[in-house]
Amino acid sequence: MSVVTINMPLARKLTPPRKATAKKGDSGTVLVVGGSRFYHGAPVLASMAALRSGSDLVYTAVPRSIITEVRSFSPALIALPMPDDKFTVGVANRLAAMVPKKPDTAAIGMGLSVAKPEAMIAIIRKLKEMKTRLLLDASALIPEVLAEIKDTDTVVTPHAGEYRRLFGADPGSGEERISNVLEMAKEHGITILLKGPTDVISDGKQIGINKTHNCAMTVGGTGDVLSGLTAGLLAKMQPFEASLLAVYFNGLAGNLAFNRVGLHMTAEDLVQDLPVAMKQFDVIIK
Known about the structure:
The protein has 286 residues and is α/β, with parallel strands linked by helices.
């Protein structure tokens, strides 16, 4: 099977156009579920990236203990307070009833403190009932979720350590890494975006890689930005194409930030440069 490397011509081909007559909601509604007493930044970065992706609405569900910090970051965020610091089955049920509008996609796990695997299973089931596409990252990447997301349009975004925790095997390196991701994606019927020096993406049928990034992007929060960006694109694209485009745009923004501030960049720099990276691909149709 051939391996596709994402580049500018392919990105132009994949980027979905927007209709000149579009109305609010046509470009996607995203739910971000994350955060804890010590990690309020992760869901904020993911939410801002989802907005920068072109999504129309982003709901950010975080524990009540950090709701003020999240709301004060940007008036563009619609923050939903979850009652407990730990994500429980009860919180999952409350959240599903709280969301003002059915989300097209949900990004779950960034900075989240999960009480028990049953809580993650509960929110996945609730969102599947709503026909919401899922992106699972960080704390949501536990082996117990695999049976729930099998043969769905779900995207998982692990780094190597999270990949080992989720699938119980090391991804390896080089060609072995590519074949392992392909095999796991095929076995579970999901799309895997394995982050690393070379990102590897597969839906079990296609394989793509991305080399567009730099060593300054090891700073905390860049993965949260990628998750939000991917979730935003997933609202209007197929999982493999959305994932491939997201890592490329994330890398382009990272390179712009690196050129601007060098090794001193933060994840906020990445968010700020996303529109600069992406606007060259904008297409508006009648």
